[in-house]
């Protein structure tokens, strides 16, 4: 699918209000992105800053090089056709950094970006005792405007007002000002263990653009319930870190079993066969190239 078509498809899906929000699942490399795309039922890939940082074993705190983030996102786009939503954190600096960064993501075949209103460098939203400091609404409006002026992708503005403990009124105020600056959707985040805070925000939201939520802390809320309880105001749900967590737990189990059993025979029935890996690598396509062109 062409880049413009992906942008338009994602925009239409977020605004459709069909009774079920669009679902994006996090990925951290081309292999995980391809697995998401091969699983029927997902609408987009979340190029997660958390997952990518974790895959390099560094904190999700603006530590990882922006160039690594960009090139890994580009590589995800090259192996599958779902729209990619890139997690740009704070935009790697101020509005000038945003203006220079955003076109590079559009060139990498990204359909949407998410910018958050924290200070740079950021800290992970769910980290206990993290530094949850927000920039002024005026500064963040400048970032949104710079992004909109630099690309045709969707620009999703993420407010961390609830994460920072500033309350619903401030979260709504910030969301409204971000829409005024051109945001195509508002991502509202919470670290509460129940969905009450998010549901209250969604029900009170007076804006015309769709909302985006990331129910990591309150997984008991199903996708159907999200649509019903928020009057279809939520256009997108992001499963923010499940691929990397699944990969870590699976590898830990396998490695522990190998040590415990002092051999690899016992894990063979529990892990993917080599043939599955060949398929994910596109081995058949390479063999066809060999057949056509190698002499």
Explain how this protein is built.
This protein is of the alpha/beta class and about 300 residues long. It folds into two domains: about 5-240, TIM Barrel, CATH 3.20.20.60; about 250-295, no CATH class. The protein is built from twelve helices and eight strands. The chain has helices at about 5-15, 30-40, 50-55, 65-80, 95-105, 135-150, 170-180, 195-205, 225-230, 240-260, 275-280, 285-295, and strands at about 20-25, 45, 85, 110-115, 155-160, 185-190, 210-215, 235-240. An eight-stranded parallel barrel has the order 1-2-3-4-5-6-7-8, surrounded by ten helices. Belongs to the isocitrate lyase/PEP mutase superfamily. PEP mutase family.
Question: Which SSEs are present, and which pair or pack?
Answer:
Layout: H1 3-15, E1 22-27, H2 30-38, E2 44-47, H3 49-55, H4 66-78, E3 84-87, H5 95-107, E4 112-116, H6 137-150, E5 154-159, H7 168-180, E6 185-188, H8 196-204, E7 211-213, H9 223-229, E8 234-239, H10 242-261, H11 274-280, H12 283-293
Parallel strand pairs: 1-2, 1-8, 2-3, 3-4, 4-5, 5-6, 6-7, 7-8
Strand neighbour order, sheet with most strands: 1-2-3-4-5-6-7-8
How far is the first residue's CA from the last residue's CA? 33 Å
Q: How large, in whole angstroms, is the Cα Rg? A: 20 Å
CATH superfamily of the largest domain: Phosphoenolpyruvate-binding domains
Q: Tell me which CATH architecture of the largest domain applies here.
A: Alpha-Beta Barrel
Overall SS class: alpha/beta
The count of domains is 2
Report strand %.
Answer: 5-15%
Largest sheet: 8 strands, parallel, barrel
Discrete helix count = 12
Name the average pLDDT. 95
Assign an overall shape: globular
Q: Secondary-structure element sequence?
A: HEHEHHEHEHEHEHEHEHHH
Give the fraction of residues assigned to helices. Answer: 40-55%
What low-confidence regions span 5 or more consecutive residues with pLDDT below 50? none
- What's the count of strands? 8
Pfam families: PEP_mutase
Keywords: Hydrolase
Organism: Exophiala viscosa
InterPro entries: ICL/PEPM (IPR039556), PPH (IPR012649), Pyrv/PenolPyrv_kinase-like_dom (IPR015813), Pyrv_kinase-like_dom_sf (IPR040442)
């Amino acid at each position: 699918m062409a880049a413009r078509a992906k942008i338009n498809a994602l925009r239409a899906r977020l605004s459709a209000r069909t009774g079920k929000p669009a679902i994006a699942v996090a990925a951290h490399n081309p292999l995980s992105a391809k697995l998401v795309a091969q699983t029927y039922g997902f609408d987009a890939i979340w190029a997660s800053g958390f997952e990518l940082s974790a895959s390099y074993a560094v904190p999700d705190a603006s530590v990882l090089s922006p160039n690594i983030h960009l090139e890994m996102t580009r590589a995800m786009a090259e192996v599958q056709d779902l729209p990619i939503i890139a997690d740009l954190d704070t935009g790697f600096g101020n509005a000038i950094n945003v203006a220079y960064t955003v076109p590079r993501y559009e060139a990498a075949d990204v359909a949407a970006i998410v910018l958050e209103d924290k200070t740079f460098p950021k800290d992970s939203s769910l980290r206990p005792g993290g530094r949850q400091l927000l920039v002024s609404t005026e500064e963040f409006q400048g970032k949104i405007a710079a992004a909109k002026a630099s690309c045709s992708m969707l620009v999703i503005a993420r407010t961390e007002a609830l994460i920072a403990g500033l309350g619903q009124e401030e979260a709504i105020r910030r969301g409204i000002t971000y829409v005024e600056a051109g945001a195509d959707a508002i991502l509202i985040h919470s670290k509460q263990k129940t969905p009450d805070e998010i549901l209250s925000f969604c029900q009170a939201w007076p804006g015309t653009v769709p909302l985006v939520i990331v129910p990591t802390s309150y997984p008991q809320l199903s996708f159907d319930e999200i649509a019903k309880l928020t009057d279809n105001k939520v256009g997108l749900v992001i499963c923010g870190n499940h691929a990397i967590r699944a990969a870590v737990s699976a590898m830990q189990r396998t490695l522990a079993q190998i040590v415990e059993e002092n051999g690899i025979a016992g894990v063979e029935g529990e892990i993917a066969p080599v043939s599955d890996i060949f398929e994910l690598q596109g081995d058949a396509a390479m063999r066809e190239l060999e057949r056509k062109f190698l002499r």
